[in-house]
Design a protein that fits this description.
The chain has about 100 residues and is α+β, with helices and mostly antiparallel strands. Helices cover about 40% and strands about 20% of the residues. Helix 2 links the parallel strand 1 (about 20-25) and strand 2. This is Glutaredoxin family protein.
């Protein structure tokens, strides 16, 4: 398969406003609170929508992620867990 040209990659890349960040966690979790602060700041600055999903309210999410929370998804794909790096999240949202 041929490499995509930079022009094609740029044309198909999503703008930050077309992305979706999902933060999966649970109440009373200090790592989740820390992650939420980073997600709120980065998404707010970049105009990216984000959502909170509570593993105590969703059995499937609990089974899938309970050992990793907080988990951050970008457009439904796992980006990170436990600690959220601001610069890494920003980069993922601009690629």
């Amino acid at each position: 398969m041929a490499d995509m040209s930079p022009l094609f990659r740029r044309a198909t890349a999503k703008s930050p406003g077309d992305r979706l960040v999902t933060l999966i966690g649970k109440p009373d979790c200090h790592l989740c609170d820390d992650a939420q602060s980073v997600v709120e700041r980065v998404c707010g600055e970049m105009g990216v929508p984000w959502e909170w999903r509570d593993i105590t309210q969703d059995a499937q999410l609990h089974d899938q992620y309970w050992e990793q929370i907080p988990v951050v998804l970008v457009d439904g794909a796992q980006h990170t867990f436990w600690r959220v790096n601001e610069d890494r999240l920003r980069k993922a949202l601009t690629e």
